[in-house]
Design a protein that fits this description.
With about 375 residues, the chain is mainly alpha-helical. It is about 45% helix and about 5% strand. The protein is globular, with a radius of gyration of 22 Å.
Length: about 375
């Protein structure tokens, strides 16, 4: 699910030339681009000949309300006793593969098990959208063509190799297989984990897990370092120093009274951010450099936090302390907040009702300006004040 789900990018002048308009004209333009990239013209034409626009893909792209949930609600929905039990079952079943991954790529099994669980329930629910049509639809659509047109070209390359049947199915956004990878990532990072001579991410868990680990390593995962840990923060902490855009060493945070709730402390010189997904009265976490690799997989902070936290649970961490955070805003209220912040000159990345990092930073700056606890958690009181 390596997509910028929280972004609403405007089409650039270049993008405007290569998206939208007559479908057949667009189709021929993609064929021409594929041929210019060195692909076989027959393969390109065959691949795209019957490709069509899928309105259900566009509907899914426009309705991502799940990311309007707060962290506690979202994480409780995704993490269950059954998923934890299944994670252990699959960890045991593919123990040798996970050992190989940890030795080769330095990616802990908990990280991959969390992605595997969230993306496809360990391969059981991989999506039933026709992948070719999904990519064709999203490349033609002018919301994010700069992301999806190259993926469509990459899919043609996989088809030319014989690794992309036209009836391939997956997620609405074109991801394929048990850990949901896009075509470009499959080309760059696909691994034949089971030794059968093919990279088959839909049916081979070994291929999917090895490929996912290779992708994470390629994105900058550092072996031997954690991604996140739950922490306890003192009431005296300067809340304006929290947030993913600010880092200090673990030792410096500890000197300010921050403590790790469970597990051993990492290198005291390791840089960390204090993340308060629901403000100073809610859960609190250290986010280390590896945490940022998650954002290359998915741009939603809520998803990333939940995936990283689930990885720690799989590896033995306790249930987080939910605290007693102030109630958050509804989706409609969040849109109003973002619109008001935009009117004040803040860049929140668009009024989409999703509490992303740009909105959090704007909220924190406004809290600082008003002399409020600057924990970046927008409440009804702040909305009313604005």
């Amino acid at each position: 699910m390596r997509l910028a789900l929280a972004l609403s990018l405007l089409a650039t002048p270049l993008a405007a030339q290569v998206c939208g308009g007559d479908v057949n004209t667009f189709r021929q333009g993609v064929v021409d681009e594929a041929v210019s990239a060195g692909l076989d013209p027959v393969a390109a034409r065959d691949f795209l000949a019957t490709a069509s626009i899928d309105q259900s893909v566009l509907n899914a792209d426009r309705s991502q309300g799940v990311f309007q949930m707060d962290f506690v609600t979202f994480s409780r929905r995704l993490i269950s006793a059954n998923r934890l039990q299944n994670a252990q079952t699959y960890a045991d079943r593919y123990d040798a593969t996970f050992d190989r991954i940890e030795q080769t790529y330095g990616v802990p099994r908990g990280v991959l098990l969390a992605f595997w669980a969230f993306e496809t329930d360990f391969g059981q629910v991989q999506g039933d959208y026709n992948t070719r049509d999904a990519l064709f639809t999203l490349a033609h659509d002018c919301r994010r063509p700069e992301l999806f047109r190259p993926e469509l070209i990459a899919a043609i390359e996989l088809y030319q190799r014989g690794d992309f049947p036209l009836d391939t199915t997956g997620a609405w956004a074109g991801e394929i297989g048990q850990v949901q990878m896009l075509p470009k990532d499959i080309i760059a990072n696909g691994i034949d984990g089971d030794g059968d001579g093919h990279v088959t991410l839909k049916t081979s868990a070994e291929d999917a897990l090895m490929s996912g680990a290779n992708l994470l390593a390629d994105l900058g995962w550092q072996a031997g370092e954690p991604a996140m840990q739950e922490i306890t923060v003192p009431d005296t902490l300067d809340w304006a120093t929290t947030g993913l855009d600010k880092t200090r060493s673990v030792a410096e945070w500890q000197a300010q009274g921050v403590s790790i709730r469970s597990g051993s402390a990492p290198d005291p010189n390791l840089q960390a951010s204090v993340v308060l997904p629901m403000g100073r009265n809610g859960p609190a976490f250290f986010a280390y450099p590896n945490f940022r690799v998650y954002f290359e997989w998915n741009q939603s902070l809520t998803y990333v936090l939940t995936a990283a936290y689930f990885a720690t649970r799989i590896e033995g961490a306790p249930v987080y302390d939910a605290g007693n955070p102030a109630p958050g805003l509804s989706g409609e209220e969040m849109v109003r907040l973002q619109e008001r912040l935009q009117a004040m000159g803040y860049d929140v990345g668009g009024a989409d009702g999703i509490l992303g990092e740009m909105t959090r930073e704007a909220v924190q700056q406004e809290q600082i300006r008003r002399g409020l606890p600057a924990d970046a958690w927008p409440t009804q009181d702040l909305l009313n004040a604005l």
